[in-house]
From TrEMBL:
Keywords: Plasmid
Domain of life, per lineage: Bacteria
Protein's name in the database: Conjugal transfer protein
Organism: Pseudomonas cerasi
Length: 427
């Protein structure tokens, strides 16, 4: 039995040792050759896919850790998804709120501009429902015509309620003495307290009158006859009209001489008398005209009724009328020309409620009101101009009377000398 060299302390013979060394060298050379071949073939080799079917470390350690990591990542993803969804929803809500606010602001701006345009249009083009009550200027001319016509009626004695006053005014002139009797009889209706103490109970002063001194006091023309201390009346009742006419008769239409009869007028003296009486009546007419005008302007004027009804639709005008209107106007709803003018002026100046109305006006409405006020002032100034013309006429007549007093006696004296043939020689 052959025992391998080196085993059991057996020492190989030298030949076998050399053989063994040769074999080892050849094995080493073969191994080196194999490695060299493998290295040489590596350049031409290609990747060969392999499938690893199992791995204990991977299965036992890595995979469980990966599973836990995947679960954690899944939870993180879910949480982030929910947070993102909430953020998106909140953003949507904010966008919706902002959009709604912007839309509401646009609508408000549009509505504001529309309202502003409508208000401008209303101010420029609308006519107030109270346009007729804001001014009674439309009837001013008619009121004036009615008043002027009434002046002529009063001058003839018509329109007077008292029979005594009417007879005194309407009858033809009488002698001065008889005219005094008539004035005394007429004054019996206007007996004063002091006169009653002197001769009360007689036919010339039966009792103290409710219109004391109505035929002798100028206030009968200005404020209306009545008890002492009464409030002024710009619209007279019939008794106040009669008192004003009685004052006119006593102050300006005197009886300078009787009217000539048919037989008297045929003579030369009668004709001269009638001529002087005609001239005297012309002067009397001028003297009585201002008084007749103011009495006629103080009578209730039917033309003012509709205008007053319209004006009282305005609260400020109604308030002013209630506090300042005459008893006659408040009772009948008709005022005189004087009160009509005073009402139109006073309700715009002496009326605090009008100031409130004025503050509420703007645009064209305010401009119209300014034009109305200016037009009212122009109308009143026209009345003043007419009154001044009348005053100038009367002043001219007064100048003529003064000239008569100075020159007529001299002319009569010289005329008598001329008729008698007397000649005056120049020095």
């Amino acid at each position: 039995m052959d025992v391998p060299c080196g085993l059991g302390g057996y020492t190989c013979p030298p030949n076998r040792r050399k053989l063994k060394e040769m074999i080892m060298k050849r094995l080493q050379a073969l191994t080196a050759l194999t490695v060299g071949l493998l290295q040489a073939q590596q350049v031409l080799a290609y990747v060969q896919p392999v499938a690893v079917t199992a791995s204990v470390p991977i299965t036992a350690q890595v995979m469980p850790a990966m599973a836990g990591l995947q679960a954690t990542l899944a939870e993180i993803l879910t949480t982030e998804t929910q947070i993102g969804t909430a953020i998106v929803q909140a953003s949507d809500k904010q966008v919706a709120v902002i959009s709604e606010a912007a839309r509401a602001q646009r609508e408000a701006d549009i509505f504001g501009r529309q309202t502003e345009r409508l208000e401008r249009a209303r101010e420029q083009y609308s006519v107030a429902d109270s346009i007729c009550s804001e001014s009674a200027s439309g009837v001013a001319a008619t009121v004036g015509k009615v008043s002027r016509a009434q002046t002529a009626v009063l001058a003839s004695g018509a329109g007077v309620g008292s029979a005594v006053v009417q007879k005194t005014i309407a009858s033809e002139p009488v002698a001065s003495r008889q005219g005094g009797y008539r004035s005394a009889a007429m004054h019996a209706q206007y007996c004063t307290q002091s006169e009653s103490a002197q001769y009360g109970g007689t036919d010339l002063c039966p009792q103290v009158s409710s219109l004391p001194g109505g035929d002798i006091e100028m206030r009968s023309l200005i404020d209306g006859a009545g008890a002492v201390g009464k409030a002024p009346d710009l619209t007279f009742n019939q008794d106040q009209v009669d008192a004003g006419m009685a004052y006119m008769k006593n102050s300006a239409r005197h009886d300078g001489g009787r009217a000539p009869g048919k037989g008297d007028i045929q003579s030369a003296t009668g004709r001269e008398y009638q001529g002087l009486m005609t001239q005297y009546k012309a002067i009397q007419s001028a003297a009585t005209q201002p008084q007749l005008d103011i009495i006629a302007a103080s009578q209730a004027n039917p033309a003012t009724q509709e205008a007053l009804q319209e004006a009282l639709q305005n609260p400020s005008a109604a308030e002013y009328f209630a506090s300042t209107g005459s008893q006659q106007a408040q009772r009948t709803g008709v005022m005189s020309e004087r009160e009509f003018e005073a009402f139109e002026v006073g309700r715009r100046y002496a009326n605090t409620a009008y100031e409130t109305d004025l503050q509420a006006l703007s645009g064209d409405n305010l401009m119209r009101e300014l034009v109305r006020v200016q037009s009212l002032g122009n109308w009143l100034q026209l009345g003043l101009k007419n009154d001044q013309r009348q005053a100038n006429i009367i002043a001219g007549q007064q100048l003529a009377l003064a000239a008569d007093a100075k020159y007529v006696p001299q002319l009569q004296e010289l005329g008598a000398k001329m008729s008698s043939g007397v000649t005056a020689h120049e020095n």
